[in-house]
Amino acid sequence: MSSFEIWAVILGLTVITFITRGFFLLMGERIELSETLQNALRYAPAAALVAIIAPEMFFTEGPNELEINSAYFWGGICSIIAFWLSKSMLLTIILGMLAFTAIRLVLA
Amino acid sequence: MSKAGFAIFTWALVTGMAMAESSLSTAQAIGMSFLVYAASAQLAALPLIAGDFPLWTIFVTAIIVNLRFVVFSAGIQPYFKNRSFWKRSVLGYLNGDLNFALFMSRFPKYQKDPSHLPFFLGMSLTNWSIWQIGSLTGIFVAGAVPDSWGLGFAGTLALIAILLPMLDQLSARLAALSALLVALLANDLPYKLSIVLAVVVAIFVGIMCDRFIKREGGAT
């Protein structure tokens, strides 16, 4: 991606932060979110995150090459276990990175 | 430093390192930190930028990841609806996950109170400063670390740490599981359409689960 395009992404994301975070504040009292829609939207962010994380863990050799014998996959699994046990964001990242690094060195 | 402040700092540090390790230049990483100020959207955008995806897919993805903020904005609307437009837009911009949670736990129910605005601004601007210090530290520290260490992967792990607390109910877990299956099966779709498809399927599965649980009369 060219430098110009990346700046366009950054500016676009800035506008998106403003609009999503301020949405109902900016609207004043003109519209309200129906409960049905609120319930439906609850599932969207987690699903989007899953779909972004999955390729970073499963398709590390390239698209269409599902590979689970990788430091990325097992590092991710370790961070999930670390979160279950500790409920701490910091430990999730640190233990995941430690496992990732250890396995990377073994597989290399 | 408060517990919240410490969490913000480390979280910002990881995000800063992930940006510096990605295809962004240092100036772009700093610009993204100061302007976008939305860690999950930033981290989600990095692999898409690296993969050279069309801008619109990156924007659609960021909007989906940010949808929770739309719900948060409805939460603080009663407290600030009489403020001027520019004040409301600044307050909205600062209404991130932690700031929203801290504000709502301090003022759970709307009552007339002159301290809403000073509390929100004082708290969220402090957190904004801690965030930027952590993020800048991450951007500059990452440069001293060899690429082979794969520090960018810390960004993916940070996303895992945001994702998992969202899966606190059975319907949310099943919805996420269906999203995972779709993401794996549809991985070769162009333009990261797998994300859009995963979101649509997860919403469908989640709503179906809710209906089933309600009909059975059981708790989640």
From TrEMBL, chain B:
Membrane-traversing stretches: 30-49, 56-78, 90-107, 119-142, 148-165, 193-213
Presence of the UniProt keyword tRNA processing in the record: no
Signal peptide feature range: 1-20
Localization terms from the record: Cell membrane
Any matching Pfam family: AzlC
One GO cellular component term noted in the UniProt record for this chain: plasma membrane
Biological process according to GO: L-valine transmembrane transport
Its membrane topology: Multi-pass membrane protein
InterPro entries: Brnchd-chn_aa_trnsp_permease
Keywords of this entry: Cell membrane, Membrane, Signal, Transmembrane, Transmembrane helix, Transport
Protein family per UniProt: Belongs to the AzlC family.
Name of the molecule in the record: Branched-chain amino acid transporter AzlC
